[in-house]
């Protein structure tokens, strides 16, 4: 509370820039987040004091002026009694030239703050403000025009004017007919055409034109302004070439942004009437001119447009249109292949983590998205022809192979001689070519695994080629990834090579592999292992796991002898990937071939878990490994159930790692249907819940432990799905529901999703009559639970939707409301009415948040809904009143 007064005093003292900046920022934050602290009768005094401060401090520092302007704007948006604030501000300062900079600053940030996330002014007030700003917008433009006339070529003022104009364009409140004939547009394009315009002014003018183009997205309703902007931008081509000649990259990037925004705005017109009027294809020519610029950052700006154009044409699927746009896409692909070339003096393999590496990945994605316009096969053949017929330098070869790798998967592999020839030639590449070419060729082979599957004769030469790569440090990880791809796609053909894979797996650490590549190789090996005859699987799995098990045993023995703790996660992750992907087809009644192996490995995993029980990261990896082991053999892991649950529960009492709850949910999923296991699983749940509730009941417990909330409700949901009556008849259910109601306001994506899914599934067991004999009992138990917690749940859900939860969570909330309504509509109507009555009806600034009619309309929309998505739409609209 004291911050208001202290900030005000610091601004009056005007000691130095730092203290004033601190005070101005504090004032802004208080208005944004704590405006409700001030009684309404103080609002006018606060406004007058802020206006005095900005007047007195206007020459101290521009950043202070911005903070105070934001404070004034945020106040104006929340203070319902300040009517026509734009008009009053312009009246007050219009004639004082020295006040002009801060007046324009306020007028710039005001439209920007209308949709600010930090102000919850609600849709009603927002609509009122936008109408008000639209009404005064021509006054603002007139003010800006007169500023430009007075300023002449004074750069600082022009920058301010363009920023302000852009801000009003962004809000979408300027009258497009009024703007079409306005002198400011002419000034904008003159500034952009002039060669001597400074970098800062150029950027401000470019931003403003982009905002204007964005504002007329709906071209048909803004014809006049659209035409002015369209013609204006087309005049900038010469200026672009001038900037290229002067090597002024900043300006080149600005022009490219403008050209891209032009194409985005007129996209639909261009596709609807290509070459006519504002569908003029010169717009695409401008982008291709930019694509020809030697710096790849320039072409990258336009990627989103090309992606959208491709998406549009794909949806329309009209051959005649494809023919019109195909040449443009061909030229684009040509430019992209050139931009992907590494420097001729580049040494080593291509980097994928630096800026250029990321650019190449984006090129690869874009090529995949637009290749259908050119035809994958045609493009692939043309690229191959350039390698076959010419004698290109290594960097051209590498870039061509890179683009071929991007489209290889989209080429039809059925009896395709070109693909077969490419594979044949690639595996014959000598070891003397540049290492980057070998690297990319290895990636290409991995992308062509479908071709290998259709032509098994290539399997041996391909594997030999990849094995060479695996033995060379820079190529090893790429080769491992390609071997993994081939194992995934050619599982049956690879069975004969299993021994070779096993040899690689045993010697994994003699190769220079990244962690990810090593795990990928084991995944490939496991996928092939699952296709071996059942009687061979156990022995081979045992061999495959042996290396990791021995390593874990060695770590445990070292630990007990010299007390040094070593990290076992590498080995745990490798075991996890083996269990995860060894999924042979086992007929009913057959013993699972992996059962014996997992039984033998359990003691090592148990010891590892005990040794590292305090370390969350290692425990998490242990649980992950056990999860996949249990999933691998399903009911075959029954012998592990007792010792595993006992160990989980005892460690969890001391170290409540949430992954134990997750592992518990896996056990319930696998064994919850087994009559003999239900009581044991319920005991496990109750034992895990006690420490969990203690943790979550601490101050900010829910907020500080979202993973625990997520995993607890996954576990509870699994119980509801597998054995609802066991859970509903227990004493723990009351506490779980109370916890769910409390956690409903938690704005953590996964945690919130789990809580809502639990509530939805719980109530659904009393709604869906699946003709099981326990349906009436379930219905009765849900009825008791809802009688106890129903009103509290609905009130909490409505409050959370309005004040705590982001919009993406609303569909999940809607599902819970829908199930409650299906369960007992009349009672739900009453609960919802009570919940709505409890919501606040106006803001602290005196604006109406929600009208009586809006409340009754919402109540009616929800309670008369015939499907869940109608409830969702109603909540979406309603909660906007509180955002």
TrEMBL record:
SUPFAM superfamilies: ARM repeat. The keyword Hydrolase does not apply. One of its GO terms (biological process) is protein import into nucleus. One of its GO terms (molecular function) is small GTPase binding. It is found in: Cytoplasm; Nucleus envelope. Importin, which transports target proteins into the nucleus. Specifically mediates the nuclear import of splicing factor serine/arginine (SR) proteins, such as RBM4, SFRS1 and SFRS2, by recognizing phosphorylated SR domains. Also mediates the nuclear import of serine/arginine (SR) protein CPSF6, independently of CPSF6 phosphorylation. The nuclear import process is regulated by the small GTPase Ran that partitions between cytoplasm and nucleus in the predominantly GDP- and GTP-bound form, respectively. This is Transportin-3.
